[in-house]
Design a protein that fits this description.
5 helices, single chain, alpha+beta
Length: about 220
């Protein structure tokens, strides 16, 4: 899956019931998981055991690819975040629905997502010489961002988020400005129309509210 080395391939089904009992999920939380997720299977393990050529560093964690079979296309981000926090591993989620797949990854307290696409077209590359490098570059790939010389992947992702927020704010300001200008122009044209009508004319523009009883 995802074009990863065969040495990383594993198959370990995670029963939902085991997850519920281990983390003592209440009935409402269980129902939310059941409504969205059909099955979960660990399909790849990226670690020093499966890729011995990686440099060993302190406090590094392996990366696991968790294939999540969905009951419908798409999954709430809060549910994905909850899942990642419960399992507490570095997880690359492969969200599968019919013949399409979407990648999700919990990085720096936020869920990163790419687009659903045919399973055969979803690929990732393992970049870097350590598990930390690989994890950060996977986050860049899922976020569909390009590495930048001299900047850490974490900085690139955080900065992209700030740019997106700023772009949205600018768009909102633009929409409000357009509404204001349209309203101002409408008011100006109305005043021109009023001045064009002779004061002694029997025809005067009026605005009346419709009665709720009128058809």
């Amino acid at each position: 899956m995802l074009g990863l080395p065969q040495t990383t391939e594993v198959k370990k089904i995670i029963p939902k019931r085991d997850l519920y009992s281990k983390f003592e999920l209440n009935t409402a939380e269980q129902k939310e998981f059941d409504a969205a997720i059909r099955q979960m299977t660990i399909v790849n393990e990226i670690s020093l055991r499966t890729i011995p050529a990686l440099q060993k560093q302190e406090q590094e964690k392996a990366v696991f690819v968790l294939a999540v079979q969905l009951k419908q296309e798409g999954c709430a981000e809060r549910l994905l975040q909850r899942l990642c926090r419960l399992i507490d591993q570095r997880l690359l989620l492969a969200l599968c629905y019919e013949d399409k797949l979407q990648l999700a990854l919990y990085f720096d307290n936020r869920i990163l997502l790419n687009e659903f696409m045919p399973v055969a077209e979803q690929k990732v590359n393992l970049q870097g010489t350590s598990l930390n490098d690989i994890w950060e570059h996977l986050a860049l790939q899922v976020a569909q961002l390009t590495p930048r010389a001299g900047l850490t992947p974490a900085y690139v992702i955080a900065n992209a988020g700030r740019r997106a927020e700023a772009t949205f704010e600018i768009f909102c300001i633009y929409i409000l400005l357009r509404i204001f200008l349209i309203a101002s122009e409408t008011s100006r044209l109305y005043r021109i129309a009023l001045t064009a009508i002779p004061k002694n004319s029997a025809v005067q523009p009026t605005f009346t509210a419709k009665s709720s009883h009128e058809a």
